[in-house]
Amino acid sequence: MSNPARPAEPTAEVTIWSLEQTSPDDLRPSAAPEGDIRIVRSGIPLPEFSRFLYTAVGGDIRWTDRLTMTYAQWQEALDRPGAETWVAYADGTPAGYIELDPQDDGVVEIMYFGLIPAFRGRRIGGHLLSYGAARAWDLAERWPQRPATKRVWLHTCSKDGPHAMDNYLRRGFRLFDTRTELEPEVATPGPWPGSGRELLP
């Protein structure tokens, strides 16, 4: 006797755009926002802090790929030579972050970038992206074992905020690939399970 067919899981069509810079001269920095905004490198690779940033920034836009990682896996990702996390602070409070992923042949990916919802719309994002891209370009100055950066790239998708693509283009990133995928529909995780979008104003 055959088992009844399981209902298909709901899926959503997601467009993924990949963008790049191939010279530090491509970078068009944003003006610094007003107020006490500081960008500081997280000098101690700490999974607890990294996971806080990941869930606080990506919880309302369905960042889920790292939620199943163990503590050891998270530590391994942070400990790789050349991996860096730069955190924006507004009046001493974490406002967002940008994570640099070192790759082969002088390539650096901006792996994660974004702001905690309470800090969006305050002109911090352009400044943080500008600063982070500049740190991708001078990464080898802090990691002498790495070759000089030749290319900085990132991807964004239709799940990201409405101003994400415009911010990347304004900073001098150029589109080099577009693709569409079907992804499982998942609940919005929020900064912790079950919170969803409840913290958004």
UniProtKB/TrEMBL annotation:
InterPro entries: Acyl_CoA_acyltransferase, GNAT_dom
Top-rank taxon, per record: Bacteria
SUPFAM superfamilies documented for this protein: Acyl-CoA N-acyltransferases (Nat)
Domain (N-acetyltransferase): residue spans on this chain: 44-195
Name the UniProt record assigns to this protein: GNAT family N-acetyltransferase
Naturally occurring in which organism (per UniProt): Streptomyces laculatispora
